[in-house]
Amino acid sequence: MNAIEIRGLSKNFGSKQALKGLNMTVPMGAIYGFIGENGSGKSTTEKLICGLLVPSGGSIQLFGKDYTDENVRAKVGVLIEAPGCFPNYIVWNNLMLQAANLSIPNPEEEVSKVLKMVRMEGAASNRYKNCSLGMKQRIGIAMALLGHPALLVLDEPINGLDADGMRIMREILVDITKNNQCTVLISSHILGELEKIATHYGIVRGGKMIREMTAQELDVDCRTYVSLRTREMNRAKALLGCKYSRVEEDEGGSIRVYDAASPEEIVTSLYENGILVSEIQTDKIGLEEYYIDLMQEKEGR
Amino acid sequence: MEVKFETNSFAKRLKSMLRVDFRRMFTMPLLYILVGVCLAMPILILVMTTMMDGAVTVDPQTGVETVVEGFRNTWEAIGTLSTESAGMSMIGMCNINLLYFLAAVLVCIFVADDFRSGYAKNLFTVRARKGDYVISKTIVCFAGSVLMLLAFFAGTMVGGAIAGLPFDTGAAGVRGIVMCLLSKLCLAAVFVPIYLLWSVVGKQKLWLSLVGSFCVGMLFFMMIPMLTPLNSGIRNVMLCVAGGALFSVGLGAVSNTVLKKTSLV
Q1: Which of A158, A190, A214 is the last residue of a domain?
Q2: Measured at the alpha carbon of residue A66, what is the angle toward residues A65 and A70, in degrees to the nearest 5?
């Protein structure tokens, strides 16, 4: 059974078609990184999953049941855009309201627990409106974690967090998936952070899912390259360009040779042409580069 | 890996939602501001109209003289006898009936706050049943409106005493006045669902909720003195209870449909 199964989901806002038959499968226990450009339909999909928008077509199933099933919905935690808190209430009272909505039997204990999880115990008596952006994000996560959710839907949760906040967020998400058997659907533009925790990925473009894969599949798909430096960069680049299909100069000024058989082969080839290599290493492209490559490929560049 | 789903009964769901809504309503400064206004309003109305009573104003263009008529009795601020005219005179307008418009402010701001703060987003993600929300909001807003009406009643007593107006129950009698007040309290159940419907239609757009509520409220405004005269009987109370129940159920169902069929963010 999958935590989320979406088939042919479409959503129109007037004449604008935000989602065009999107399909999505999120296995249980996964941390699903949901990636896409601005306006590609990520937030719309998440709002539809949470029942905040009405779909124009298609089906959404959560844990094998229709997404409108009230028992299933009670097991969904959400942080979309900003946490839904009353600005004049203190953090504690905001969380207590949500605990009451979830009919949690021992709300004080549960609220203390989630505040501790997000390292916000000290801010419980702060008015929500006086909290910083990072604190608000953590409060939103705490609110989403109330009631032991089986599915967490997080829209850009690491926006506005400092390096420590991002680390804490990573730890929380990994912890709840391992110990609480929670499934996490997370969208973010900070792909470097996402890469550290995601077990599955879904890449959406123009309201359609263009690729779904596991972290292992991404690892296989991510091409290795040889990065090198010489004193004669232009001549080396031209020479390697004749021999290999893709040779580029990266932002750091190094030459990248993709799909090369081995670094030795490159060094030998350059040496035979009188070019000495001063620095060479083998590396793999990350999620960010993979995503950019995929987008460029789709644009036909 | 298996996920266990718990089933909550309607009573449990409603109880928890009512607890949240009552807590919110009674910790909201707006409620106390409005109750304060309701308390002060009759005092000002009764004292000022008594001061102006008998004053003659002359229209400079037509030369027509108008004598300002004040309240003859404290109870006139609560309602007029069914035999008297309840038209567009000052005493016919400046009375407890104005509160039904103030109730619109309370309901619209209370509901719009849910949507503007994002609380509705959290709520509707974990609570699939929109009907619970509508029922809870209707009950809580009704309670808030009743509190405002009672504050106006208390203010009328104080205002009448300050202005030196008689407390003579006259033809209405104590029973009639009690029934009149009860009818007015029950009549709040007619207006609250109207305002709630406009609030869920407007959602974050408070201006839309308020304009809609005032417009529809105006249509029903003239019916208030007829339904709840000062010499009301049990029939008036029953009529208001029936109207309140009918409007709450009927418009509640419409509000529920609006929430189900429209976007909540």
Answers
A1: A214
A2: 90
